[in-house]
Amino acid sequence: MLQNFKTIFYKDFAAFFRSGNAYIILGIYAILSFASAFYFGGYFILDNSSLISFFHFQPDILMILLPAVTMRSWADEYRLGTIEYLLTQPVSYGTAVCAKYCATFLFGMLTLTLSLPLWIISSFFIELDNINILSSYIGCILITGCFCALGCAISAFNKNTVIAYIITIFVLWGVYSLNLDFLLTSTQQFSDEVFAKVIRSLNFSKHYQDVVSGQIGLDNIIYFFSLIFPALWINIVVLEYKKK
Questions:
Q1: Interior CA angle at 128 toward 125 and 29, to 5°?
Q2: Which residue, among 235, 175, 238, 240, has the nearest Cα to 208 in the 3D structure?
Q3: What is the DSSP letter of 43?
Q4: For 82-111, what is each residue's pLDDT tens digit?
Q5: Burial 23-58 (b: 16+ CB within 10 A, else e)
Q6: Counting Cβ atoms within 10 Å, is residue 16 exposed (0-12), middle (13-18) or buried (19+)?
């Protein structure tokens, strides 16, 4: 099982660089991240002890770029006709799904490392809250894991990479924009503190803001993993359906 995992993982991760897409995605990420921090985030104006000018835009940037990473995960297998060969090999669906997911997730992590020079250089000019910054990076890692899992699952439904990319962006936008606070106003006379906490716990941005503000808790981690594992399960189910 481990050998099959490594084979699929290395093949998919190396494919990013063989096709040249990796360098384009990495370049666009660096441009968007630094441009948004410096020109739109008020980097030189605001108190950036926690690099809030940078982390504020990260969900939006990752929402645009990560679908370009995941769109080929399964769509290319369908397009190239290699899906039949892969599914007839002595490898479980779970192993194949996890290997492809880990390849996209590792590339997402590699993308985030491009921002580390901003952290290092900023430390020479201002006194940084490094604990808060580390917490913010954990938030970006959790978002990357969540977006990659959803993107891989959507790619399993499509043979066209462009369609997979577009659908993934819409799905990620819907997940990120999810805000059920309106239920608190519409049911205000019936709502209580427990009900309010449950509703707010379903809001994606609430959990990201908690982590970025340095208030990371077990509920935040559980929330993101509650999106990752179902997405991977759906991916496995889709492959079983395709096989049949």
A1: 85
A2: 175
A3: T
A4: 887 777 777 888 899 999 999 999 999 999
A5: eebbeebeebbbebbeeebebeeeebebbbbbbbbb
A6: buried
What digits encode the pLDDT tens for the residues 170-194? 999 998 887 766 555 655 545 566 6
List Cβ neighbours of 110 (8 Å cut-off, separation of 6 or more). Answer: 26
Q: Which tokens hold the place of 36?
A: 């948004």
Specify the 3-state DSSP secondary structure of 46: coil
Tokens of residue 171, six digits: 């799905």
Residue matched to tokens 């959507």: 154
Sign of CA dihedral 207, 166, 94, 239: positive
128 backbone φψ class: left, alpha, beta (φ>0; ψ -120 to 50): beta
Q: What is the pTM of this model?
A: 0.89
CA distances from residue 80 to 36, 53, 210 in whole angstroms, order as listed: 37, 42, 43
CA distances from 191 to 91, 165, 182, 188, 198 (A): 50, 39, 12, 5, 11
Region of 216 (left: φ > 0; alpha: ψ -120 to 50; beta: rest) is: beta
Q: How many degrees, rounded to 5, is the angle at CA 219 between CA 216 and CA 221?
A: 65
